[in-house]
């Protein structure tokens, strides 16, 4: 089912319950999840001044480079960074359950791109915050520790971006971030990002709603 007016959907959900709402926004790498989440956040708060909302990212749960180097095959782990097993899924699930319980302040990590590693406790979610929009790759994934996500979300949305467009964005992103050629960036995308995208795209139908921009 396609969700045409996500901001209105957030408002409708907030009107029918006083409980905290956890919305999961999934999508392939390069789909525009972060951009959309921040846009929805701005629009929602502009239109609904009496509501509280915060946007969080799954990216802060990347394993650090030091942790990846401790894995049995560190070279492969670093090359495949972004695959499900290169995240702290258990830590992610635990934090989401803390948010769901709404029993106090909850800290949240971010991914600091300038150093290429997560930073713990960088954000704080206050108990008063009613709507939390979490964006990330594997919000619909249920293997291993990710199975703990079952029952966490009040709704799940999938950003339905064409794979070729997402891939083109990733190539450009890699070129800008690393100062590499188009062919080198394409190689990186095909060796890792494309594999992650295939997995995420296979979970598309598990979402409650599809969102297109």
Automatic annotation (TrEMBL):
InterPro entries the UniProt entry points to: P-loop_NTPase, PRK/URK
Gene3D superfamilies assigned to the protein according to its UniProt record, in alphabetical order: P-loop containing nucleotide triphosphate hydrolases
The UniProt record lists the keyword Kinase: yes
Domain Phosphoribulokinase/uridine kinase residue range list: 22-212
GO molecular function, a single term: ATP binding
Entry superkingdom: Bacteria
Coiled-coil residues: none
Keywords, alphabetical: Kinase, Transferase
Entry protein name: Phosphoribulokinase / Uridine kinase family protein
